[in-house]
Structure formats: C-alpha cells, structure tokens
Fold AMP-binding protein.
Amino acid sequence: MTRLLTISDAVATHARLTPNKIGTHDSRRGLTYAEWNARATRLASGLLALGLKKGDRVCVLAYNCVEWMEMYVALARAGLVAVPINFRLMGPEVAYIVEHAEAAALIAGPEFTALVDGIRAGLPVPDGHFISLGTDAPQGWVTYESVIASGDPAQPFERMMQDDMCALMYTSGTTGRPKGAIRSHGGSSLMALATALEMGFTRDDTALLVMPLCHANSLYFGTTFIHLGATCVIDDRRSFDPEALLATLSKDKVTFTSLVPTHYIMVLALPDEVKRKYDVSSVGKLLVSSAPVRKDTKLAILEFFRNGKLHELYGSTEHGWVTLLRPHEQIDKLGSVGREWAGSGAIRLLDEHGNEVPDGEVGELYSRTSYVFDGYWKNPEKTAEAFRGDWCSVGDMARRDEEGYIWLVDRKSNMIISGGENIYPSEVEGVLGGHPKVKDVAIVGVPHEKWGESVQAVIVLHEGASATPEEIRAWCKERLAGYKCPTSVMFVADADMPRTATGKILHRVLKQRLVA
C-alpha cells in the first residue's frame, strides 16, 4: 500500500510553513496552524493513552464548533476512525449508529451528554471512554480538555496508508436503517486535490463552513482547505441566521461558502437596508447543492454577490463529487447538475439490465471516480448493490442531453431533500407503521418554496380507528429527528392508495396527485 499525506500531515506541514496563520476558528476561539497541530498531537496521544488502537471507531456528536477541526485531525493522526453523528437524531437513532459502528469511544457536546446517558446501557463504548466537550464532566464522563492535557506533545505516530479508513459516514438507506460509508485517507486526499483544481482554491482563501461538520459537504470542503493551508471559519450557531451569515462573510473577508437553496432564499429575503449593511465583495465563489434552484433565485444570488461565481454540485457521501454546473452554465443549463467533475472519471446511465441508455432517456446514474467510498461497513449485500465493477451508484435516476449535461429526474429510493437534509420515506414509514391505528402509510416529498421539499404522510387507518394529524406527528417526534417528521398528514381510504399489481404503493403517482 502507498503512503500519502493526510489532513494530519497537512496541518503539521502548515505548522512549519505558516505557524502563526489562523487555520480555523469559530465565534469563541481561533487556532493558528501551530496551535492546531500541537493540540491535535496531544489529543491523539491522549486518546491512545485511554487504550484506543489504530482502526478503532470514535463517534462524535456535537454542534458545529472549532473542536470538530481538532478532532478530525487528531483522529487521523492517531489512526482512529471518525464516526460523525448528525446532531438532529434522536436517542434510538444515535444508539443504532454507535452500536453498528462498534465504537470504542464517544465524544459529545455538553448539550448531548444527557441524550447519550439515556441510551448508554446498550452501547459498546466502555467506561472511561465517554468524553464531554463541556468544561465539567457529568458522572461517568471525562472532559475533552483533560484528555488533551494528558497527551504527550512529542509522541510519534504511525503513518497512514492510502487504504486506511479515516471516516465512517452514516447515510440513511432505503431500508430505513442508516448505512456506514467507508471513506479512506487516499480517497479523502484525492478529492481534496480535485476540488482545489476544479474550483481554483488556494492557500489565500477563507472558507465559511455553514453546513454541519457531521455532514460530508463540510468535511469534504474542510479537508480541501486544510490541505491547502487556507483558513476555515466555522459557523457555530445552533440555527441558520441569514443576517449573522452576512456579518461573518463581511468581518472575516470570506472568499467561499457552500449553502443549500433554503439558506440563499433566507438571505435574499432580508430587507434591503439590512443587506446593505454588510460588505460581501470578498466572496469570489459560491456553491449551491442538495436541491434544485429556480432561475429567479440564481439571478438574485448573482445580483447580490456581485463578485461571486456560482457553482452547483451533485455528489454523495459515497461518490464524493460527481458533476458540477460551472458559473457560465448556470442560466443556459438551468435545472441540470452539469457535467463531470474534474477527477470524477466518467458517468454512465444504465437500464435495469446494465446497458447504457441513449441520450435523452432515463437511466440509473453510475460514476467511476478515484475517490469513491470503499463500501458499506458490515453490509456486503448493500455494497454489492452499489457497484457494477468499478462503477458506483446510489440509486439516482437521470438523463443526459446531447451536450453531455446530466439532469436528475427521480431518485430510485424516493429520497426527500428538505432544507439540505436527506430523508428516506421508508424510515419514516417504518416508524408510522408501528402506530397501533395505522394500517398503511406512504411518505412522499412535495415541493416547498423555502425548504425545497416538505414531508407529507398519506395514511390508511385500521377499520373503525380515528386519529388526528397532531397525534401522528407527536408519535413521530418521539421517535425521529424533527426534520424527518411529516409537516402534513392526510388520511385516505385504502382503495384510494395507488398501488402496483403486487400491492406496492406507487410513490411517484401519489406525489403527482398531491402536487396536482
């Protein structure tokens, strides 16, 4: 296996080249590259001193904060595997990921220690390996800073190989259970290089990471800027604040940020007198992803960010980046997700028999990249389903026009994207199917001007049963993250639920009816 530079090596290099440059900061504190490197070393050493060993999985559950940047680098340095957990998940969802990953340690923000304590009895994490980011550790926990203080600042570490796992990224699956996508150090570094080349980033950039650091978007872009020795600003607000975003862009002279359409819509909706208060002229590149963007929204983005070049991206946790709609294509190819990203290799659209479909026809999208994921953790069946040789698919359906532009037309899994979050209907259907009054249920996404899509539940009740939408939503809120819960509930007769000849619900037909 080949040795290569990881984000740990990159931070160490920049600590020598530009030790006093701010590498990352949030609203509370900043780290020069020298400070970042020193704290990552001590954290890595302290984690190994707890008894962790190369390849062990370490779960992280926290809001955005600068500590995420320390942890990603320290875990890579120690040869440990980062398992970021979405902070919006509920206790049972968190428990499943920790158990499935067979985690050896868990680091949590102080806001989540009570949640973890509520599920702790069934977790594989041993006593002494629960680490709180808070200043005071609850009973049974140790503090993050105490682990850093215990570390050896001069400890040597084993170099990583390109095939070594650096992260286990859990992404919801069509079966309703999240799947752990294995990301390697080699794939991570190659994607960072491709991103820098394609989008023209340099060490002089300042990136604002708004998306949760437990998500692939912020991790992949953050890795790029770490390799370059640029500066990463962490948006550590608990919820998106459009005016605060503008204030940060202006104050920190940010040159790049990645947002979902909902964020842009909220920024553009601010009163003109508010928007005029902030200088966003430093923003040279913008990215939008996760949902389609209307023409009027794109034009308004370009008008407000006058120096910003807009890019639109399609990718996934598993693929990495696949296609890019470049700045000069934004209006002429409105609705397309663009063409191949640099380094993505190629794209094929295949029918159910594995044959390429002609231009203009719909097929399942497969890509071949040098930075594709290495399969699903402990799930050989789903791994086999994702690949045809070197070609990988996450089930998205698309067509290609005569110029090679890709147009997403459906999701094989009926995935819903609301506010940038992926929601799989089968997971929500599984929860609602456990309600004693529910006989059958379908979850579909319907267009929403602000969030992209909203979650609609269509329910058939058992004969003689009655229920209210509020009762159904309350059932979900006790068992699912808030963003997965239906925003609206409709009750229908069994005969009115569209089905195939074998009884399967036709989600696409149901969605068409609801939209109409």
Notes: The mean pLDDT is 92. The first strand starts at residue 22 and ends at 25.
